Each structure stands twice: as structure tokens, then as C-alpha cells.
Hints:
Blueprint (H helix, E strand, L loop, with lengths): L1 E6 L4 E4 L2 E3 L6 H12 L3 E6 L11 E5 L3 H11 L5 E4 L6 E3 L18 E3 L3 H8 L5 E8 L3 H11 L4 E6 L11 E2 L1 E5 L4 E3 L3 E2 H15 L3
Helix pairs in contact: 1-5
The site of cytidine-5'-monophosphate (C5P) has 13 residues, from helix 3 and strand 9.
Amino acid sequence: xxxxxxxxxxxxxIDPVRFIGNxxxxxxxxxxxxxxxxxxxxxxxxxxxxxxxxxxxxxTRIDVQSAEQMYEAVMExxxxxxxxxxxxxxxxxxxxxxxxxxxKSRGEELIIKLKPxxxxxxxxxxxxxxxxxxxxxxLETNHEESxxxxxxxxxxxxxxxxxxxxxxxxxxxxxxxxxxxILKSGEKYYFPLKTKKEVAEDIVSFVRRTSRG
Length: 213
Ligand code: C5P
């Protein structure tokens, strides 16, 4: 199979030296790329700014910075893939205007106007064909399962991986993660705390079993 994976955060520029970002390290997405490649899939890894290296003959890495750049890359490559796993923590907002010069500190309040970014997952869900499989992630802090299921329907995912910030040692930055997999059919699978590599193995086995590719 040819599998597209998005990973890491996005950086939204404020001025030439500053950005709005988030704490995503890309570890989960890179673990997914590694597992997919080891299982002889062809991987297109679209990575936001991360401090990670990955070398595998089956992986083509495309580095992007902003949500807009990630959107463009996904729109270009998803139609050529059998499946996509959207693991990136994409910024939901980006500055309305980017200052050409470094914004000076004048000891006053600064108001930066933000506009919503494009929802990459929703756009991928719209162009998804019958033969393609789309998996997304949801990081929730409350009403986790119902929020995740709503997200899966809205974005036309075939599967959603839920991780909760309420779980210790799971999520941003950790080498471990604790997930619940929810399929389009409504079936739910609860997993214990595992390394991100093991979690990636679990996720990829669902993608391969459930997809028709
Ligand atoms: O709505 P929320 O951001 O929580 O949805 C999370 C899922 O949507 C993840 O799979 C994430 O990669 C994807 N997403 C995206 N583009 C956005 C926002 C989220 O692809 N602009």
C-alpha cells in the first residue's frame, strides 16, 4: 500500500522571528511511518517542524512549516495514496497578517488577529474515494468518545484514534501513548499504555485489516 502520514506541529508565522506553535513532537507520526515502511508499504511522510530523523528506503519525507503548506502537500499526495493517517497537530488558527519586520516591544498590550486555518482532514475526507482509507486522531480533554465519534463523522474518517490528555504519560512528548481505536462501524478497541512504536503497530494493523487497498 501507499500510505500518507502527517506528523508533528505546524508553525504559524507572526513576524520574521516568531510563530504560534504547539507541543507536538512528531514522535507518534514518525513511529507510524517507520512501522508502515517496515511492513513494506510506501510512505509519504508530511512532517511539520520536528527534531526527528528518519531514514528508510520506503519513506519519502516532505517537510512543511505551516498549516497552509501541509494542506497543499496533502492535497497533492493524498489522491495518489491508498490510505492516509493524519496524526499532525495542525494549528487551528493563523495570524491574519504576517508582519514584515520584527514586532517591537513597546511595553504595551499586543493584539494579534487570527483567522481559522483550513481543516486538512475535512478536505481529505471530501476528496476521499471508495477505495481509500482515512484515519484521524483526536486529542480530547472531556467527553472523549462522543467528541471523537462526532469528529470521525464530520471529517469522513474510516477510523479515529483517541488519546486523552487525562491519561498519565500519554500524548505530547512522551514515548508512550494510550489509545482507543473507534471504527466507522462504531466498534471500539481499548488499549493499555504502550510505547509509541507498539501503538503504531496496533494502528497500522487496523489500517491494513480495515482498508480495501
Ligand atoms: O478537530 P481536531 O483538530 O481535534 O481534529 C483532529 C484531527 O484532524 C487529526 O487527525 C488532525 O491531524 C486533523 N486536522 C487536520 N487539519 C486541521 C485540524 C485538524 O488535518 N486543520
